Amino acid sequence: MTRQELLRIVIRQARTNGFQFRKWYLAAIDPSWNSFDDAVDLLAQGRRYYSLLFAHEFARAFWKQGSQISFVVPAATYTRRDKEGRIVTVTRKPFTRRTLKADVWKYHLREMAAHDEPLRYIRRFLVIEGDVQQTKSVAS
Length: 140
Prior knowledge:
Largest sheet: 2 strands, antiparallel
Strand content: 15-25%
Shape: elongated
Number of strands: 4
């Protein structure tokens, strides 16, 4: 999936939750508007899409308050000290999380900022037809 395709899906999901993409684009990126596709192509250049992903209006709409989003928290392995002072390795299994908190968008902005690639982070929250088909074929 290309960056443009992913951005289109992300923007459309936020728009269904009330995000006014065109209004945001005109105010934050470019005061001229040709088309949705041209706007996405411009955002996909370099790291311009960061301005969209980290915009508070976008985040509020994408992780809309009161909506339930299911996503998989990946497996993690880290080290820590136990109560005797020894270093132990902790391995956590992946699990599904559902979010309903009012300020969940703030949490996700912080997590996305700490992630190596913010677009890859936000990708976890999208249900895309190809993913569903892949999941079905793996399960059978």
